[in-house]
Amino acid sequence: MKLMVGHSGNSTAVYLVDGATARNVTAAMPEVSTDLMGLISTPDLMTTLRNGALSGASEEVAKIKPALPVAAPGKILCLGLNYIEHIKEGGYDIPDYPAIFMRTRKSIMAAGAPLVRPTCSEQLDYEAELMIVIGKGGRHISEADALDHVFGYTVFNDGSVRDYQRKTHQWTPGKNFDNTGAIGPYVVTPEDLPEGAAGLKIESRVGNEILQSSNTGNMIWSVAQTIAIMSQFTTLEPGDLIAMGTPPGVGHAKKPGPRWLKPGETVEIEIERIGICASPVVDEVEEAAQ
């Protein structure tokens, strides 16, 4: 099942996507409300959606403006250094425990919204990533049970301001500039993907320029392992988001390079069978003037 949250006219709704068309789930099932939390928190609604035929006319997906799949996620947890070749290109040692950091709500935005290069830096980089939407919460989740806690998978661009990322040993500043982490537009439920969303092509590009191209099967820590590891130190809650790290090919490591994102470009992150997260790049000053 492919789901999307978006704006059409004056309303925000959950949509069930089928190719180039979508049906308004919120209009047919008002109890679902206006983001995925209704479906996440009430599994019976998901059962009804899977088993029932939605009433109402179809809409063109292209005319729906994407919104965040979860409007107010409790936690945005991110995995770093999860592809061996990316670890090598960054000059890091291969770790035996994943690098983990967090993002703030202001740092993320919906697919299609501008990716903002800040006034204080030109080193805006891209990172193609698989993202998990947690469905069932828990603490000390076993690896064997972890995939039962996944509501769905989406696409994430972990836009990073590299000079600020490297100002200290902690990555927080470079990973949390406002409007640098694009999410969506689609969330695909697990039954429509390989187990743990493994074996999917993942790519980033600007126009015809392919920046990254890899496969989610190359991740060091799988989705199940990551959920188990993260639930050791924090209680995962419904609607939490977990980003799974990026493959090689990021801009700071390009040779000759580096290759930073520039205003006027549109960066696309695509994961096979999930979709494309496209973001126009703008300068912060220009964005503020609009």
TrEMBL record:
Keywords: Metal-binding
UniProt entry tagged with the keyword Metal-binding: yes
A Pfam family this chain is assigned to: FAA_hydrolase
Taxonomic superkingdom: Bacteria
Gene Ontology MF: a single term: isomerase activity
Fumarylacetoacetase-like C-terminal domain span: 75-282
Protein's GO biological process: carboxylic acid metabolic process
Family, as annotated: Belongs to the FAH family.
Entry protein name: 2-keto-4-pentenoate hydratase/2-oxohepta-3-ene-1,7-dioic acid hydratase (Catechol pathway)
Organism: Celeribacter halophilus
Lineage of source species: Bacteria, Pseudomonadati, Pseudomonadota, Alphaproteobacteria, Rhodobacterales
